[in-house]
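Is this the right way to post structure tokens for a design question? Let me know if I should format differently. Anyway, here goes:
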């Protein structure tokens, strides 16, 4: 039987990188939020081995993250993997800082648990996801959370108050690895107010949370990248956003709007220049 699962994207309301770790990762401190912009993942037993198909994108050679996740899932169960066919319907931009790939893997793992191990704990499923990628445990869980360690140590937070997002990806990519390589930890640099964000969320204060939105990666953008990011942020703020920032390692930018704010002006202005512009709402916990 073919089963389907939504794979919601994420935005980083606040993102700080504390330093390099001995294991090659970085210590992170982030406030993450699931949003309604999403792909769809379908799972069925079919074919031979593991087959992944996706419309509109070129899949990498070798084992995909989805195949590695399926193998890790069944290894954790101690049982052989059946023949699986996985189909992705993509909407979230790739290589954008929105966690689209991680969200797809997370949705697949939720489907696998539903089909083959409904008694498996959420913590065990997140641990399987953490073997594949640092953002995957959060994408499995969803909602509003503080992410620490390499991004896989999660603390649930009071949900972000009702609001709206406008998300825009400019027409270039910012690969994650090179963006981390640009960071310097031996000098003063911009630091987002993560503690202020946590306090505002605990109060249920949307404007207070908006005042603390920030992303450390914006400080290491190259001049041409910065001009494009700032241009998008300027449109969002001029059109009524309470805050605007780059998500993840970029280059997608989100604007945070009050729940009753008009977003049509921002959407229209951004669509005149950019091909990938979306509206979204916050999404609560998935698991």
């Amino acid at each position: 039987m073919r089963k389907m699962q939504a794979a919601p994207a994420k935005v980083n309301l606040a993102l700080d990188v504390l330093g390099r770790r001995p294991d090659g990762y970085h210590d992170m401190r982030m406030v993450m939020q699931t949003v309604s912009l999403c792909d769809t993942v379908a799972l069925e037993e079919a074919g031979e081995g593991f087959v992944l198909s996706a419309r509109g994108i070129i899949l990498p050679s070798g084992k995909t993250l989805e195949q590695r996740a399926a193998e890790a899932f069944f290894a954790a169960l101690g049982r052989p993997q059946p023949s699986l066919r996985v189909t992705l319907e993509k909407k979230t931009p790739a290589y954008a800082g929105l966690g689209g790939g991680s969200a797809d893997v997370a949705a697949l793992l939720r489907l696998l648990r539903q089909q083959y191990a409904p008694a498996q704990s959420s913590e065990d499923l997140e641990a399987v996801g953490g073997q594949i990628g640092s953002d995957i445990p959060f994408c499995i869980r969803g909602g509003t959370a503080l992410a620490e360690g390499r991004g896989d140590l999660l603390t649930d937070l009071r949900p972000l108050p009702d609001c709206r997002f406008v998300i825009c990806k400019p027409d270039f990519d910012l690969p994650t690895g090179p963006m981390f390589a640009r960071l310097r930890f031996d000098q003063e640099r911009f630091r987002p107010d993560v503690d202020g964000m946590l306090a505002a969320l605990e109060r249920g204060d949307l404007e207070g949370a908006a005042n603390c939105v920030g992303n450390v990666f914006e400080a290491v953008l190259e001049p041409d990248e910065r001009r494009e990011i700032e241009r998008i942020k300027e449109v969002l703020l001029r059109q009524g956003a309470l805050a605007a920032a780059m998500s993840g390692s970029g280059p997608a930018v989100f604007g945070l709007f009050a729940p009753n704010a008009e977003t049509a002006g921002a959407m229209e202005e951004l669509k005149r220049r950019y091909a990938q512009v979306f509206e979204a709402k916050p999404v609560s916990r998935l698991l």
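Format looks fine. Someone answered above. Worth noting: The domain at 164-280 is CATH 3.30.70.890 (Alpha-Beta Plaits). Residues 7 and 104 are 5 Å apart (CA to CA).
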